[in-house]
Design a protein that fits this description.
Pathway: Amine and polyamine biosynthesis; ectoine biosynthesis; L-ectoine from L-aspartate 4-semialdehyde: step 1/3
Bound molecules: 4'-deoxy-4'-aminopyridoxal-5'-phosphate
Structural class: alpha/beta
Oligomer: single chain
CATH topology of the largest domain: Aspartate Aminotransferase, domain 2
Shape: globular
Cofactor: pyridoxal 5'-phosphate
Keywords: Aminotransferase, Pyridoxal phosphate, Transferase
Radius of gyration: 21 Å
Family: Belongs to the class-III pyridoxal-phosphate-dependent aminotransferase family.
CATH superfamily of the largest domain: Type I PLP-dependent aspartate aminotransferase-like (Major domain)
Largest sheet: 7 strands, mixed
Distance between the termini: 39 Å
Strand order of the largest sheet: 4-12-11-10-7-5-6
CATH class of the largest domain: Alpha Beta
CATH architecture of the largest domain: 3-Layer(aba) Sandwich
Number of helices: 14
Number of domains: 2
EC number: 2.6.1.76
Amino acid sequence: SNTPKPSIFKRRESDARSYCRGFDTTFVKATGSEMTDANGDTYIDFLAGCSSLNYGHNDPDMKAALVEHITRDGMTHGLDMHTDAKGDFLRAFEQHILKPRGMDHKVMFTGPTGANAVEAAMKMARKATGRTNIISFTNGFHGVTMGALSATGNGYHRGGAGLPVGGHVTRMPFDGYMGEGCDTSKFLEAMLGDASSGMDAPAAILFETVQGEGGLNAASAEWVKKVCDLAHEHGALVIVDDVQAGCGRTGTFFSFEEMGITPDIITMAKSLSGYGLPMALTLVRPQHDVFGPAEHNGTFRGNNHAFVTAQVAIEKFWSDSAFQDSLATKALVLTTGLQELADKIDGAYLKGRGLMQGVDVGSGALAGEICARAFQKGLVIETSGPNDEVVKVLAPLTTPEETFRKGLSILLDAADEVLE
Ligand code: PMP
């Protein structure tokens, strides 16, 4: 066959690649929550492009809209000019997402990655407040460009920069970081309220409500609310990085919807296009929308093909209450299956929220072995956490319950074999 052999990737692709190390085959096709490799073997996808395929692979309605757009020679690239595809997306986003939630935020299309949306958010908060310090949290992950990296906790990622990644960011303990029973928002409160703490007045407090790369640490609603109140008391903006936890991953479109807060700035990417096409945006309250023309630009802001599929994703799923109701049911299936996994391993425990849950199995070696064995059995699943110790499920939200159960049963069998 003409399918590329794994040798070309080993020979020519940079060693910076990571996922392929665990999944050493060549994928050629995917629909829904299943992927097929060159040997014709199929795999259930419990990774979903790290939450960029929340609506599954090749959704038929998105595909049809995209094919129609291409067939009629619709705009592919328009820099940031007005195009019909962009306008249609904005209208859908306003109607189905922003208005029902009472949000008057402006939509800024940034470069196509989550990291760029974070860069824009940090710069915007600094420009809007005239302050420079940004407070971020232990184990937070915000991307690998210099600004986003300065807010990222993990030393391994920061080490890739080859120079100290300072950038005037103060890191504080995330919810749960000091163990159960310790309310870490009290540290923040004390530091902010004490002129001799050495903490510079912050432009913004930046956090994920569930730390995706950091090991599925889910902040409580109380903690999040307290942190937001503190930010506003001290003249700082609240930035929620919803790149991974957004687009329905936690059960609602935004991850913070049931926490009684509305952030001043929100970053989104990954599943926004719904089709795996690069697209990112930064939502900002109008009064903080402070960039002048070209102050934060980039050639690939707003790919029109991504707008086309993103509009379908918004209209198809976020006006459909059956889809939204199904998320809680599936989250429960996930909790039950993962609890069974946790029960097999001494000291293991469940982490996360909604459809981003996993099990801390205690060591990266064990988590890696379980995922590798699961892959041999036809399940694509990855780890996260500072030591890769969390077996993490990020299946498409559209995965049928039956397939969810099948994937979980592969995972449990894999764990049994490894633990034997
Ligand atoms: N923020 C969060 C919360 C993320 O999970 C990620 C990616 N894993 C990013 C930012 C960076 O996004 P990207 O990889 O598209 O730059």
